[in-house]
Amino acid sequence: MSDAFVQTTQLTKRYGSRTAVNQINLELNKQDIYGFLGPNGAGKTTTIRMLLGLIRPTSGSIRMFGKSFPKSRMDVLKKVGSLVESPSYYGHLNACENLETIRRIIDVPAARIDEVLSIVGLTKDAKRVVKGYSLGMRQRLGIAAALLGSPELLILDEPTNGLDPAGILEMRELIKSLPDQYGITVLVSSHLLSEIEQMANRVGIIQHGSILFQDSLEMLQRQAKHHIRLAVSDPRQAAHTISTWGIHAAQHEDLLTISYVPNEQVALIVQQLVQNGHSIYRIVDQRQSLEEIFLSLTGKERS
Amino acid sequence: MLLKALSADWLKLRRTWIGWLVLLGPIGVIGLQSVNYGLRYHYLMKKYEADLWGNLILNVQYLAAPAMLLGITLLASLISGIEHREQSWKQVLALPISRLTVFTSKFTMIQFLLFVACTLLSGGTLLLGGVLGFGMDIPWGMLLLKCYFPWLAAMPIIALQSWLSITNRNQAVPITIGILVSIVSMYAAQMPDWMPLKWPLLVNESHIPIYSVITGLSTGLVIYSLSLVHFARKDVD
């Protein structure tokens, strides 16, 4: 437990009587891409702000890199890069100057500015005033700023918000490359499951300030219910035939749906149906999508 | 650490109006006084015959006091506006630097710019007196006192405006208060001695200007310390 890279224990933030974040226990391992997932207003940003020391937890504790936070605030923040919600920048300065304002405080070599600009692909526009940048470029500048201090942990809050499809793809590729290329651990929040699914190896789902699920992406996918669908010439008769082997088949129009069975059994069913004179048009393996899992997880909260 | 923060804040002033503002304040005051002296040259020369330099300094001071209060408001607002505009506070405060340093750096920057403005004002006064042919008998002590003491005595207002501007995203609040303060300060000479607005005028019952400076500096220090505590504990949205 205690050797987790980042760990929160019963972390809680209350605003008056409203509980924004309720006793959450996050756990990130080194070189994870941790997808922090939840609808808007679920408490993602509040949690992230607490991880960065921007707001104070009402109760609970945070440990990062084996140090307690915010007690060892300076030591911890040296190793953290962040991009919280909309990117922060100075519109009247160019990209180099923007990064320089940070570099002067964190004290890294000047050459690092060119390095991070090339990582995010802004080298060409580095001398332009940021006011004239597109949203995607500003977002990339925000990532560059987060990477400037060669952090061990990168915290990105909704990094693809407002980007066009090409920008989203670019951002995703960049984030995916970070653990392998630079050994960085990433915490990335999003309200879109499809996005997290394509980057993360671990997932935490938050709703109304509480964590509903936290495990590997694989485990989340395994929770998806498997179904096998059969399109046959005479569904009613086929359903009857199948039920004689003790397998329940639900009939929707001309489709039969049976719950997941191993391959051998599927083969057997097909063989028997064919021998009984049924024509089989299609066999479809259907899995509940992650969106549906997500909805069923978050829906439970509501009722 | 403070020097690092200051050098970062200094860089952020590039391509802003802040430098011009520091220049324009003193130029405006000296400009108005040159119009005053230009239009009524013979009358004023006769009236102030006994102490030409002293009266020029008093005249400059008369205009400079409300201008300085307005300048404090604008400087504090523009300097914190750099961070407010694109919500950069969250980026700055997530850096490995203490909040006390961040706040003190902004506060120091405002002080430094006011110091520059005061210096320009005394330079401008000298220049105007020279052009008007007041001679070399310059009352240096009085000149420096009248140029720098009001700044020091205005410390409570500087601390208040810095705190309001830095902690409010909406700059309407500090600017409204600042403008009101500047207007009210024009009647400050008739106010009781405990009124902070009166201190920059260096007028008090004992007729010892340094008293106004000491009260101003110590009250300013108290307000500054309180705002530091507030800023250090504040949630950043």
Describe the structure.
Chain A has eleven helices and 15 strands. Chain A is of the alpha/beta class and 303 residues long. Chain A has two domains: 6-218, Rossmann fold; 226-287, Alpha-Beta Plaits. Chain A has a six-stranded mixed sheet, sandwiched between helices. In chain A, strands 1, 2, 3, 5 and 6 form a five-stranded antiparallel sheet that branches. In chain A, strands 13-14-12-15 form a four-stranded antiparallel sheet, with helices on one face. In chain B, helix 2 (18-39) packs antiparallel against helix 4 (52-84) and helix 4 (52-84) runs parallel beside helix 7 (140-153). Chain B starts with a helix and ends with a helix. The chains are: A alpha/beta (303), B mainly alpha (237). Chain A binds chain B through residues 49, 52-56, 73-75, 77-78, 80, 82, 84-93, 97, 100-102, 104-107, 129, 145, 149, and chain B through 4-5, 7-8, 11-12, 14-16, 82, 85-98, 233, 235-237.
What is the topology?
The complex is a heterodimer of chains A (about 300) and B (about 240).
Chain A: E1 6-15, E2 18-24, E3 27-28, E4 33-37, H1 44-51, E5 59-64, E6 67-69, H2 73-77, E7 80-83, H3 95-106, H4 111-119, H5 135-147, E8 153-157, H6 165-182, E9 185-190, H7 193-197, E10 202-207, E11 210-216, H8 217-222, E12 226-232, H9 235-243, E13 249-252, E14 255-259, H10 263-275, E15 280-287, H11 290-302
Parallel strand pairs in A: 4-9, 4-10, 7-8, 8-9
Antiparallel strand pairs in A: 1-2, 1-3, 1-5, 5-6, 10-11, 12-14, 12-15, 13-14
Helix pairs in contact in A: 4-5
Chain B: H1 2-12, H2 18-39, H3 41-47, H4 52-84, H5 89-92, H6 99-131, H7 140-153, H8 155-167, H9 172-185, H10 209-233
